[in-house]
User: What shape does this take?
Amino acid sequence: MAVLPIRISGDPVLHSPAAPVTAFDDELRALAGDMFETMDAAPGVGLAAPQVGVPLRLFVYGWTDDDDVLHRGVAINPVLWISPASIDELDEDEESEGCLSFPGERFPLRRSQSAILQAVDLDGEPFEVRAEGWLARIFQHEFDHLDGVLYVDRLRHPYGKASAKASRKNGWGVPGLSWLPGRDHLED
Ligand code: ZN
Assistant: This one.
């Protein structure tokens, strides 16, 4: 297993739809193992294959809720059903999210409170997870990655402008940038 470099916003693989997984083999198992290791090293609560340069429809997640229950798994070829999102004012404290492909930045974004994830596991066996709150947010964030959408693409005024400014300041938005968890710097 290995920690993989994480692609940064601007790399084409992050901005293109990923292809369905068709081969449930040792290579896929190794990829999922590396993705778990990379997510844990970052550290993060979710990581999608395009973020490590692999244009396939799978993501891993790992998040411990307020009751100390660990939600961890790999979702392959997922489908996501979401409830309508509320239209209340955004709460910057409660609704800010980040992304390992937009590292060190956080911006508030409205997400649906509930989601149902349907996917298959590494053996190709279907499973379903009903998620609320932050877990539902993680699923929406990771699912977006498989369609080539970053959360910063969804930000509303004035946060969209702020994220574009952060991207410019960091020199992102160009192909070929990545960073390696475990090293304390960005590399290209
Ligand atoms: Zn992300």
